[in-house]
Structure formats: structure tokens, C-alpha cells
Amino acid sequence: MLAKLRTRVSALLLVAAASGATQVRAEDVQGVWTRDDGAVKVEFSACGGAVCGAVSWLKSASGAAKVGQRVFSDMVRADQITWTGKAFNPEDGRTYSGKMVLSGKKLKTSGCVMGGLICKTVVWMR
């Protein structure tokens, strides 16, 4: 009887630990990410019930982007590694449907028009 109880408690602890690991993974997108060309850093953080990203550093201040400018907004979880929301492009001043996909230490962001037929994708690193 005691052995069965220990087995059940161990199983419950294992399930709790696994769900806790999933929660940590779900929040992995938060933090500072550097665009693959090294020109900009964006900090992703919680905003309301979603995730938003704002420019936190620029290699050159001569472009259209400005530090503090929100470039990702209303990003809500579609699954464990994907968020959907809005992506703002400072270069043309337009907001697009946005998507983020987390893969380890890489984050792919896309801004799309025409229902996703035309997209621009950027890769970010921690």
C-alpha cells in the first residue's frame, strides 16, 4: 500500500514538473532579442494578456526606427511556440499581421499582407 502511494505521489510530482517546464518554455520569448544582421534589438515583454516588443537598441539612429518604438503588439499564443498579432514596420509606417515562431535561441518574426501571401521574415537571436 505504501509503495503504491509513493508511486502515485512520484507520478503527480513528475506531471507537475513537466507542466512547470512547459510554462517556462511558454515565456521564453520574453527578453531581449537581436536581429540577425545586428542592426536592432527588441525587448519582448508582457502587455496585458499578450506579448509586445519594443526597440531597445539601434546600431544606427539614422533610420526610421526609434528606441522605445513598439514594433510588435497584441502577440497572443497560437500554440507552444507560435504567437500571432501585429507587426509594425517603421520604414513604411504600416502595420501588418504578425507571427512569431520560437525555436530554441532563435525567434522568427513575420509581417504579412494579403492574407499571408506576401511576408517578410526576420530571424532574431538571444
UniProtKB/TrEMBL annotation:
Residues 1-26 form the signal peptide. Keywords: Signal. Pfam families: DUF2147. The keyword Signal applies. Residues 31-126 form the DUF2147 domain. PANTHER family: BLL6627 PROTEIN (PTHR36919:SF2), BLR1215 PROTEIN (PTHR36919). This is DUF2147 domain-containing protein.
